[in-house]
Amino acid sequence: GVKLLLHGLCSNTTVKSLDLKGNNLRTVGAEALGKLLRQNKSIRSLTLEWNSLGMWEEGFSFFCQGLGANNFLQRLDLRNNQINHQGAGELAVALTQNASLQELDLRWNNIGLLGGRALLNCLHRNKSLKRLELAGNNVPGDILKAVEQALDHNQDREAILSKAQNQVYILNKEVLNLKDEKNKQFLDFMDTVDKQKEEKAKSERVSAARVSQLQEALDEQHSIMNSLKAKLQMTEAALALSEQKVHNLGELLNTMKQEQTSVAECHFRELQQQKQESADREGKLLHDLSAASEKNLLLRNQVDELERKCKVQQDQLFQVKQDLATTTAELKLRAVQAEERLEMEKRRFKQSLEDMESLRVKEVDHMTQHIEASERSMQDRIQRLETIRISLEEELSQVKAAALAERGQAEEELLKARSQARLEEQQRLEHLEEKLRLMTESRDEAQNCCLKQKEMVAEAQARAKQLSLHADGLRRRLEELQQDLNSKEEEKVTEVNKVKVELQEQIGHLEAERTAQDGLREKIAALERQLKALSNNHREALLDKEGEISLLLEKLRMKEAEISRVREEEAQRASFLQNAIMAYVQGPPFGTHSSRK
């Protein structure tokens, strides 16, 4: 029946505890138990009291082999099973292979001296066994003390390992938290940098758009001035042509007058000489006079046409003046629009500054709340520790001599806990102070960025003012040009030269603005370098913290080396004790031993 039951439990995954006390298990049962221990992975406690398993050597050896192959059983009860020193040796071999068993009860068996030695030797290799009961087995007291010491060492080692694991786990958590916080801070910093870059790009775009608009306006003014210059040149050419025509006509009139006078003199001279031919010649002269009169009429018509052309040119000049007035009005409207845009940008900057200040106030409030919550939690922990200390003192007052040692241990633990709590509080306070410092630094950086943006706005305003002044100057110059156009024609050349000089100055101003934009680009490059330097500093800090973690790991390794050294020393002491016991057992009789003493 036990064989069938254990065969069914081999594949079970829910049973945690199995009690087979007083069931008269034999070789078949012991073999089934060995198979169960090899295959089952869920049983943690096994009770086999009053089963006489030690009487069946083959079955018990198979059971010990299964125990050595199991890595899940934690408690084993083998009381009153008639286990002798051979069975104890097989159990010792199994315990050297097992790494999960923590409690083993072997009371009221027949282990004896040899079995006790075997179990003591196996404890040097087994590091998981914490409790081993050997009462009622005829084991000497020295071996029992050595076994207790080995178990105490195992318990101390496991406590130290658990503490070290807890410390490593806490340190890993803190490192992960620090990494997360640093990553968050770095991401926030990168977000702020990206925002600043976007804002700078926007401001650059706006400034570029403004510069392009102003350059377009200047190009339009240049085109207008070029068109005016072309019109002036055309009018000058037309006037020169008209003057040349008038001069030619005057010369023709003078020649005609000279010819008339010469003809009259010839007529007077020839009248005396040739009276007969006077009639014919007078007819010819009348004909010539009619032709001259016709020529005079034609010349007068030409003069009238030239006067009409002059009037048309004056009308064109009036239209040009009107065009100049319209262009000045358009420039005024554009200046008003530019001022409105500047005011809108000022309002946006003010709103962004107010948002930044509100975010900073919120973050400071959140940090203060977090600090208060941490202080409350630490006070609660201290109160709990004090309540635990009071309860321990009440229990220690009831105990007599043995309680004094426990009281000292409890006080040491309380001091350690308080020191750990103080250290944790100090670490948290330092961490919070670092956070506050970082927040203040970020606030200062934001303020510096705001100041820089204000300076940029002031520079843009100054540029707008300069541009408005340039526009006013251009208006004044246009008015001067209009006055100069109405003035004499001799001053036109000088005014054109002045306009050329002014255009060269404007080109110089535009080049100065371009150099200012280059300076802004250099500032942006410097800011990007600073960002790279900050990222390098963050990386160096991370590397430093990783170095600290490596130092802590090396300290843990050193502690493990010390623990191994202590174990080796204890093993040497146990070997010395074993050799002494062997020498004592194999020595001479009682009388000679006393004489040697």
Q: Order of strands across the widest beta sheet?
A: 1-2-3-4-5
Rg over C-alpha atoms, rounded to the nearest angstrom: 58 Å
CATH class membership of the domain at 2-139: Alpha Beta
Number of strands: 5
**Biggest sheet layout:** 5 strands, parallel
CATH topology of the domain at 2-139: Leucine-rich repeat, LRR (right-handed beta-alpha superhelix)
What do we call the CATH homologous superfamily of the domain at 2-139?
Ribonuclease Inhibitor
Unreliable runs: 589-597
Coiled coil: 211-245, 289-569
Subcellular location: Cytoplasm, Cytoskeleton, Microtubule organizing center, Centrosome
Pfam families: LRR_6
GO cellular component, one term: plasma membrane
Structure commentary:
The protein contains ten helices and five strands; from the N terminus they run αβαβαβαβαβααααα. The protein is 84% helix and 3% strand. Helix 7 packs antiparallel against helix 8 (401-486). Strand 4, helix 5 and strand 5 (131-133) form a beta-alpha-beta unit. By secondary structure, it is an all-alpha fold. The protein has a domain at 2-139: Alpha-Beta Horseshoe (Leucine-rich repeat, LRR (right-handed beta-alpha superhelix)). A five-stranded parallel beta sheet has the order 1-2-3-4-5.
Indicate the topology:
Blueprint: H1 2-9, E1 17-19, H2 27-39, E2 45-47, H3 57-69, E3 75-77, H4 85-97, E4 103-105, H5 112-123, E5 131-133, H6 141-273, H7 278-398, H8 401-486, H9 492-586, H10 590-596
Parallel strand pairs: 1-2, 2-3, 3-4, 4-5
